[in-house]
Write a structure and sequence with these properties.
CATH topology: Immunoglobulin-like
Distance between the termini: 55 Å
Number of domains: 1
CATH architecture: Sandwich
Structural class: alpha/beta
CATH superfamily: Immunoglobulins
Largest sheet: 6 strands, mixed
Strand content: over 45%
Shape: elongated
CATH class: Mainly Beta
Helix content: 25-40%
Radius of gyration: 19 Å
Length: about 120
């Protein structure tokens, strides 16, 4: 029983994600590090339209072998999304700190909006 609980706790914790972009072997590459303000679930990251992270639970993403130059990164986490254009160099890692919405906030806003709508509808009838 303790083993099952331990496995569930470990699986529920956020882990750093290390991934590799499929760049051409002769292309100059660098590293991109996305630092999230808090651990997030359902994290997806695309670099120039190529999905490099899918459904992760993490607060730190390291993308190695990313091509140098200007590139577009799109990230979704906890129901929010961010799109940015970044400059990647081969000399040092490009580090991008990102704020992410609280996971519970979206549900509470939706619930509150629904309750307000019901109350307004009831008052108007």
């Amino acid at each position: 029983m303790r083993l099952v609980v331990l496995v569930l706790v470990i699986c529920g914790c956020a882990h750093d994600v290390h991934t590799r972009y499929p760049a051409a072997p002769d292309e100059p590459t660098g590293t991109v590090v996305l630092l999230l303000s808090q651990p997030a679930k359902d994290v997806n990251v695309a670099l120039d339209g190529v999905l490099v992270v899918e459904d992760a639970h993490t607060a730190r993403i390291v993308i190695s072998n990313a091509p140098t130059g200007n590139h577009d990164i799109v990230m979704t986490a906890n129901g929010g999304d961010k799109a940015m254009r970044v400059w990647i160099t081969s000399e040092h890692a490009t580090v991008i700190p990102l704020g992410v919405p609280d996971q519970s906030t979206g549900f509470l806003k939706t619930l509150f909006g629904t309750l307000v709508t019901i109350a307004a509808y009831s008052l108007l009838r």
